[in-house]
Specification:
888 residues, alpha+beta, 7-stranded beta/alpha barrel
Length: 888
């Protein structure tokens, strides 16, 4: 029976798809057309995600198998073949009935079901390095389990733009070809149809970007210069494979539109393997493509904050567990299984679909003010709010796995070290030695001071009821140190911390801050070493100020007109904001803050509480802190009980830096970019995600750095919500962090409410380098020292132990643990200093490893086998490139 394709999704464009017609004179002569059949996968959007998963494993896969069976009487290259991404195929195999699973496996081995390398379409900017690598495991496990070679092709659909980590990721995983199909309404990056995409590590990946639809047209455009064409016939979101009749109709249409060409049904890899033989002359595009949808993630600020933390802590847990077994601690839990489950939740959060779409009538309708309140009270939004909860639960579930497990593992270590009585163990998850202030929550008595068991250093403590803080010095790389309670007096140290509440000033040995009491912001911030002023006092924005923007219909309509490239009649309700009245734009910040200064032996702080008023309908708190031993300024924003607001809004923290003709360095996923040079036109110039930090520099490569472990969304020069620019280049030294927004009107959370916090850190840059100026301070902030305590009798483990160290800071160890793709353990290094380097990797004493075999990101052995001598191995690292070693 012929299927009815419902116009329910943001993926439809009336002129495109399967009915597109070309005259014979318009069609270039090609020798061969490879036809690929696929369905666009959304984990949610068309239904609650649990229902989508159920349908894929039942009716949808059965329907596809039936079409395959009906086509078996045709020649092999004419039979129906369906391409599926890795994660939904994993779900089909896992959750289908036993007899259906057998049919699926046979279809894969027979070459009628293809599984491409990626798990699904993702918002790549929302991800992190190692979770992206691990996401390739769904497809590769299927291929290995069935004795098949790994996929060399990959596909993304819908999402307009992707981080330039993609060519680095896929090329270093052995993937040769990527197809990106864009949402038909969204503006596309200005790239050729077929090109080499060069990543930050200089890897090149053949990339086919089709800006008009998920798949491609059935025949090539007039100026197609090659002898092979790729016709991707892709059904709409979660609508399943074609019936046999639809499949035959599509093939016949392609044959008609490509007279004289051989038409065969195959895979994306078939296209690559055919066209590469032509030795095609392709343009190389070296550039990042910030996504024009990425702002939607900040509609879930709490979950986004947790996702960023879990992307580090999940892999840190596995590394810690692997190291602990070398140190002599027996594993009591299946850590790698727990980590895998956590990573799956992270991957599903990175998948591009958040929830149901109000514009498709799934739940309620766009309303504001009292009408919104009434509809919500009646339960008309219950269905859509549940779909957002499903999305958030992916991260909440991961958090539930990782946080308690890591806590238990650290407590077991603290209980096992050779130290009697109350002791604290501090673990460093980064591969270089470091020092920092740590906090322990405990009611136990820790006497006057702490003593480092190995070095003998006596350290003063700050105890405020159940909160204990101290400076933990020289914690070994990916290792730990033990501190015991002692009555010995710590050496007196002169404090540089001070404040003057009357003048509104506080300072330490690194900085002097003067506050604007009326606005509760920073009026002046002096770097004492250079005597440079960090704050641009002449800016229209205040330094460290929270602002709430409430947008007008004129702004949302202008954005829609600038951004929507086709299909206005349906796309406006998806990408604009319908049913708004003519209320004017409004920006509000708190005033007349209640300011309270405080100081202890480790830090000095100014806390400012702002009460809402007629312009700002919520309270919030700002805390500014300087530390005795740390050359950074900490800024904390905290909101308590923000009300839900369906009207388009956004919240920002502004940092207008005192830099003329500012140059920016953005620590993006995979490497540092210059936004004035390294962003492909047509992608997002107004707003994007950072992975590490930001440098704001003058002509002498000096200036300031800033990052947030919690908030990745930033705009430069001016706030960038509800803007789409084609030629914007930031010049003013202003950095804005986006605390929340509800701009994305399609399938992201549409109103933000509740209580949460976000932290920001600022520092000075004397002479800019990617590593020391951005990567190292940002990674130390995102990977804080971890701490636990225990009491009672001493254990058997050494009081201090070294883990893994690298010879240069800024080289990351993104993975250390069980090799998911074969025997042995695996360590992955990722160069992030932006330069080639020889790196000495030192493993912990007692390591069992004798050899290190190079492999790619999917565990395929490549290159030489190195000998590990004295627990060390030297490798050559290329700029921004990952290196993986199987340890045996």
């Amino acid at each position: 029976m012929k299927k009815t394709i419902l116009f329910l999704t943001l993926s439809l464009l009336p002129f495109l798809g399967n009915s597109q017609k070309k005259s014979k004179s318009d069609t270039p002569k090609v020798n061969e057309v490879i036809v690929v059949f696929k369905t666009h996968f959304d984990i949610g959007y068309t239904d609650w995600s649990d229902n989508v998963r159920y349908n894929y494993a039942n009716s949808m896969v059965t329907s596809a198998l039936n079409t395959i069976e009906q086509s078996k009487n045709l020649p092999k290259d004419q039979q129906f073949k369906w391409t599926v991404s890795g994660w939904p195929m994993k779900e089909m195999l896992l959750k289908s009935k036993p007899e259906v699973k057998i049919r699926i496996e046979k279809a894969i081995t027979d070459g009628n079901l293809f599984v491409h390398a990626l798990p699904f379409s993702m918002e790549t900017e929302a991800a992190d390095l190692e979770p992206l690598v691990q996401s390739l495991g769904y497809a590769s496990k299927i291929h290995r389990d069935l004795g098949l070679p790994l996929a060399i092709d990959a596909k993304m659909s819908d999402v307009p733009s992707h981080s330039w980590i993609m060519p680095t990721l896929l090329s270093n995983a052995g993937v040769k070809f990527l197809h990106i199909g864009c949402n038909p309404a969204s503006m596309s990056p200005k790239v050729p149809l077929l090109f080499w995409w060069e990543g930050p590590d200089k890897s090149k990946l053949m990339t086919f970007y089709f800006g008009e639809y998920y798949g491609t047209s059935p025949a090539p455009p007039k100026d197609w210069p090659h002898k092979t064409w790729l016709a991707i016939i892709q059904t709409n979101d979660n609508s399943g494979a074609q019936s046999y009749e639809e499949f035959q109709k599509e093939v016949k249409n392609i044959e008609k539109l490509n007279p004289g060409a051989k038409v065969r049904v195959g895979s994306l890899a078939d296209f690559y393997n055919t066209i590469i033989k032509e030795n095609p002359k392709l343009e190389t595009i070296k550039g990042d493509m910030p996504d024009t949808w990425i702002h939607g993630y900040m509609s879930m600020p709490r979950e986004m904050k947790s996702s960023r933390a879990l992307s580090k802590s999940s892999l840190n847990l596995e590394a810690f567990s692997t190291l602990a077994s070398i140190w002599g601690q027996k594993e009591e839990e299946p850590i790698n299984k727990i980590v895998n489950e956590s990573l799956e939740g992270i991957h599903l959060f990175d998948e591009h679909t958040f929830g149901l779409a109000m514009s498709h009538g799934h739940s309620g309708y766009w309303a504001y003010g009292n009408e919104f309140e009434k509809l919500r009270a009646k339960g008309d939004y219950d269905a859509i709010e549940y779909s957002w909860k499903e999305k958030g639960n992916h991260i909440n579930g991961s958090e539930k796995l990782i946080l308690p497990t890591f806590s238990r593992e650290l407590k077991r270590l603290a209980a096992s070290v050779k130290a009697d009585g109350n002791r604290i163990v501090v673990y460093n998850p980064l591969p270089w030695e470091r020092s920092d202030m740590v906090t322990v929550q405990t009611a136990s008595d820790f006497k006057k001071s702490l003593k480092n068991v190995v070095t003998g250093e006596i350290i003063p403590i700050i105890k405020n009821k159940n909160i204990l803080q101290f400076q933990a010095n020289a914690i070994p790389a990916m290792g730990y140190s033990t501190f015991i309670a002692t009555d010995e007096e710590a050496p007196l140290q002169k404090s540089s911390l001070s404040f003057d509440s009357e003048k509104g000033i506080m300072e330490n040995s690194f900085f002097k801050i003067t506050f604007d009491k009326q606005n509760g912001t920073i009026k002046s911030l002096i770097d004492k070493k250079s005597n440079k002023e960090m704050v641009n006092a002449n800016s229209e924005y205040k330094f460290g100020q929270y602002s709430n923007e409430r947008f007008a219909k004129t702004q949302t309509d202008k954005y829609a007109k600038d951004y929507i490239k086709a299909g206005w009649n349906w796309a406006y309700s998806e990408l604009g904001r319908i049913n708004l009245d003519d209320a004017s734009y409004k920006k509000a910040s708190g005033k007349n803050a209640e300011i309270e200064f405080s100081k202890d032996g480790l830090s000095v702080s100014a806390m400012m509480h702002f009460k809402g008023d007629a312009d700002l309908n919520h309270n919030y708190t700002m805390v500014f802190t300087l530390f005795e031993n740390k050359p950074v300024v900490e800024v904390i924003w905290s909101i308590n009980g923000k009300p839900a607001e369906a009207w388009p809004e956004g919240g920002w923290i502004s940092f207008p830096f005192n830099i003329e003709n500012a140059q920016f360095k953005l620590g993006r996923l995979g490497g540092v970019i210059d936004p004035a040079k390294d962003i492909v036109k047509g992608s997002n110039l107004d707003y994007g995600f950072i992975n590490t930090g930001i440098g704001v520099l003058d002509k002498n490569n000096q200036g300031f750095g800033v990052t947030s472990p919690d908030v990745p969304g930033v705009s430069l020069d001016r706030p960038g919500l509800w803007k789409y620019s084609t030629d914007f280049v930031p010049q003013k030294g202003n950095v804005f962090f986006n605390l929340y927004n509800n701009q994305w009107s399609t399938n992201f959370t549409e109103w933000v409410e509740g209580s949460w916090t976000a932290k920001f850190y600022l520092w000075s840059i004397d002479s800019y380098t990617d590593g020391n100026s951005i990567v190292v301070p940002s990674e130390e902030i995102r990977n804080p020292l971890m701490v636990s305590y225990a009491g009672g009798a001493a254990g058997k483990l050494e009081a201090s132990a070294k883990g893994i160290s690298v010879s240069e800071k800024g080289v990351l160890v993104t993975f250390f643990g069980k090799n998911r793709d074969g025997e042995g353990d695996l360590i992955r290094l990722w160069e992030q200093n932006g330069k080639d380097t020889d790196c000495l990797v030192t493993l912990p004493e007692g390591s069992p490893y004798k050899t290190a075999q190079f492999c790619d990101l999917r565990g395929e052995e490549k290159g030489e086998i190195l000998t590990i001598s004295n627990n060390s191995v030297k490798v050559k690292l290329k700029v921004n490139k990952p290196i993986s070693l199987i340890l045996k």
